[in-house]
Amino acid sequence: MSPFGIGRLAPLRALGFLNGWIGFFIGLTNILTNILTNSFSKCFSSCNSGGFPKNMRIIYSFALILLVTIPTLPVSADIFLLTNGKSLEGNIVREIGDLVSIRTLDGKIVTIDKNEIKKVTTSSTPLDEYNERSAKIKVDDVQAHVSLALWCTDKRLQTQASIHWKRVIALSPDHLAARKALGYIWIGGDWYLAGSAEAVARKKEMDNTPAESVPAIPEKLPLPDWEKLDRENTPDLPPGSPNAQMIVVVADEKLGRKKVESSGLKYQLNRMGGKVRFSPGKQEGAASVLKVKLRCYFVRQQDFYGAPIANIYQGEAQLELLERNAEGKLVRVHTGKVKMPFSAGVGRSQETALNYTYYKTLEAVASRVSRWSWLKKRGTKVLAEPEK
Question: Do residues 297 and 342 touch, judged by C-beta distance below 8 A?
Fold first, then answer.
C-alpha cells in the first residue's frame, strides 16, 4: 500500500478509466459525424435493431441529445473579410492551429487558414441591441414597454418580451395586448391565466349562474342618490358623531373592464350611521380598513330555441374588514361576499344594464356590512337589502 492509500493496481485502474473516457469521446465524435452525414431514422434504427452494443447505444443516445441542443444556425454573425476580396458571414466554431472553421448563415462549415482573413467585423447580437434599447426607456412609460416587448417578440427574445409585457400590466392592469401576449383571458370581471385551475373554476361558476328567475332590470331606472343634480332632494345621511371612528375604504370597482368613475360606495356605507365614518384612502397607518373588490359584468345571452331573449348581468363583491392590533398589524375581523344577478332585454344598452347592476350591488354591499357585529357594537343600524 502506497503512502497515499493507492494500491499497486490503482495505476492500472486509473489507466483503464482514462482509456474508457478516451473511447467514449472517440465514439461520440464518430457518432456525431455519422449523424450529420446520415438521417436520424437510420441512426435510431441501428440502435434499436441491436446493431450496436449496449454501451454504444448509450453513447449514441447522448450524442443525439447533444446534437439537438446545439443550434444549427447562428443567432448573430461576424463578417470575415478575406484577402481574396471575398467575405464570409458567420461564427467561428473551431480553431485548430492555423485553421479556422466558420459556420455560415446557411449552416455550412467553411475551414480556412487564419492568414486568409484580412479583417473581422464583429456584429452586435439582438441581445446587445436589446440592452441598449431597454436602458433608454423610462420605467413608467407604458407605450415604450409595449414597443420594446413587440420588438423583442420579433427578434425571438421571448424572455425579455415577457418582462416588458408584465411591466405593462403593472402600469396598466387591463392592457389588452399585454394580457393576450401573456396568455390571460377575461372571465367574469377579471383576468385569468388561460388553462389555470382558477380559470377553469371561474368558467364553471359562470356557467352555473342561474338564467331563470333572475330579477329583471326595470324600464325606468331610478337615479342613484349620490348622482342627483338636485342635492336638496337627496336623502340626508344620519348625523355624524363627534367621536366617530374612521374606517378607511380601499375599493377596487369595475363596470365591465372600466374603472368606476363616480363611486357611490362611501354614500351607501355611511347610511348606517353610528359612531363610525367611512372614507376612501390608503390602508397604511389606518386603524380600521374595509377592503371592497366589486365587479359588474355581462355573463351571457339567454336564448329560447336559438332566439336571443335576454342578457344576463351580474354584480359581485368580496368584502374584508381589518383592524390594527396592539402589535400594529392589521387583523381580519369580518369577511363577506355579495352576488346580484339581473336580466335585461337584448335591446337594452350594456352601459345602462351595468350601471343598474352596480347601484343594486352597492346597496347589497352596504346591507351586508351593516350586519357585522363589529359595527353593531358601534351603534350602526342594519340597512335593508335591496329590492329586486
Answer: no
Beta strands in the chain (DSSP E): 78-82, 87-96, 99-104, 109-113, 117-121, 184-187, 190-193, 245-255, 258-259, 276-280, 288-304, 307-324, 330-344
Three cell numbers written together for 10: 490503482
User: What CATH number is attached to the domain comprising 97?
Assistant: 2.30.30
Q: Give me the helix-helix angle, 126-136 and 142-154, nearest 10°.
A: 180
User: Three-class SS of residue 180?
Assistant: helix
Residue 228 lies in a domain: no
Question: Mind listing the pLDDT tens digit for each residue in 111-151?
Answer: 999 999 999 887 777 778 888 899 999 999 999 999 999 99
- Considering its fold, how many domains does the chain have in total? 4
**83 SS3 class:** coil
Q: Give the closest residue to 164 by CA, choosing from 125, 192, 133, 186.
A: 133
39 and 97 both lie in a single domain: no
pLDDT, tens digit, for every residue of 353-369?
898 899 999 999 999 99
**76 SS3 class:** coil
Q: Which grid coordinates are listed for 368?
A: 351586508
Same domain, residue pair 144 and 266: no
Write the pLDDT tens digit of every residue in 291-340: 999 999 988 887 767 777 788 899 999 999 999 999 999 999 999 999 99
Q: Which domain holds residue 112?
A: 78-121
Q: Find, among 179, 206, 205, the residue nearest to 194 by Cα.
A: 179
Helix (H) / strand (E) element for 36: namely helix 10-37
C-alpha gyration radius of the chain: 35
Residue 27: count of CB within 10 angstroms of its CB: 18
- Could you tell me which of 104, 155, 154 has the C-alpha nearest to residue 126? 155
278: exposed, middle or buried (Cβ count in 10 Å: 0-12, 13-18, 19+): buried
Count Cβ atoms below 10 Å from residue 96 Cβ, excluding itself: 8
